[in-house]
Amino acid sequence: MAAWGARLAGVRGVLLDISGVLYDSGEGGGKPIAGSVDAVARLKRSGLKVRFCTNESQKSRSRLVGELRSLGFNIHEGEVTAPPPAACQLLKERGLRPHLLVHDEVRSEFDQVDTSDPNCVVIADAGEGFSYQNMNKAFQVLMGLDTPVLISLGQGRYYKVTSGLMLDVGGYMKALEYACGVEAEVVGKPSPEFFKSALQEMGVEACQAQ
Amino acid sequence: MAAWGARLAGVRGVLLDISGVLYDSGEGGGKPIAGSVDAVARLKRSGLKVRFCTNESQKSRSRLVGELRSLGFNIHEGEVTAPPPAACQLLKERGLRPHLLVHDEVRSEFDQVDTSDPNCVVIADAGEGFSYQNMNKAFQVLMGLDTPVLISLGQGRYYKVTSGLMLDVGGYMKALEYACGVEAEVVGKPSPEFFKSALQEMGVEACQAQ
Questions:
Q1: Can you provide one Gene Ontology molecular function annotated for this UniProt record (chains A, B) (predicted)?
Q2: CA nearest B160 in A: which residue?
Q3: CATH number of B83-187
Q4: Fold of the domain built from segment(s) A2-82+191-208
Q5: Which residue of chain B comes nearest to A159, CA vs CA?
Q6: What band does A4 get if pLDDT is binned at 50, 70 and 90?
Q7: What is the ipTM of this complex?
Q8: At B77, is the secondary structure helix, strand, or coil?
Q9: CA–CA gap between residue A203 and residue B149 (Å, rounded)
């Protein structure tokens, strides 16, 4: 802890990535990366504020946290900054009512959001939900708006699963951008706003975070 | 015919668009634009070579021609330059074996093309065929190639049908371009190669065409 103490002088909070840092996702819930369960426990014991920051948008936070807890991590849902809650905050601040093109798993994250008479479109990695019909509906909603607003939860090109590479949300974001002549606002890493919202939730300034 | 004669001095062939020029497409086969049936007949009687040039890629040429003939047009399948046959010629010239992501209606246009062990991807307006699964398969084929080649039949943003606006192939082309880091080759208008192939089929130089 002495070495940590020196490195963390002036630091009040720590942001941690999840996938590829705490654990590798995969079939059966994935597996922890060596030493990470203990590292999280030690950070928390040290009195530092800890927040987990992920671009995961195919799983709800509760499912993700459930999987991590079953792997031994000391983690709670309220400690996770993920694109859906950050998007909800942005929607609320700007009075936006989204048409949602998201995975069924994360739809519940938007339960508190008014989705009547949409004045924007939110897309996330919808997987099989990226049907022509669903894409066309999102396109039609955008084309029907005087000022089309497209919010994308991440802009990944693809990701890897055990069976191979999978198209991520980024391509579908580009498709709607091109068809509608708009530029998407990206919520999630590497957007500075995303990190700022994580810091805000932690109650720590950027200069006090690691 | 005198006025035409003056305007067409030195001209040996005429390229005609189809949709929006000869007829308006729509439910029940569409309807001819006033005067167009007679205009085509007169052009043909004049001894000029006539060729029809369309970006239609949801219907086979035989179906399109059948619809036009039933509207009274003097038109034959061999007189139509459409993206699928132009793509077939390009594939043949370059020894490309496509993975096809196209509408079922136009699949027959590729009957003579070797699609085994694909070394490129051809996409066209596949409509409902643009499922996540089909897009992901096209993506995986491209990512598996040392030199990914993506050929897109048109690059339209959207088109209009009686029920509203519909996403065209262009957005899906952009999605694959972004995900794979490639630039698509577009077959169809406004590509110069497309017009050149129409002229070649008509046996007329560009300076002799109208």
A1: metal ion binding
A2: A140
A3: 3.40.50.1000
A4: Rossmann fold (3.40.50)
A5: B179
A6: low
A7: 0.83
A8: helix
A9: 49
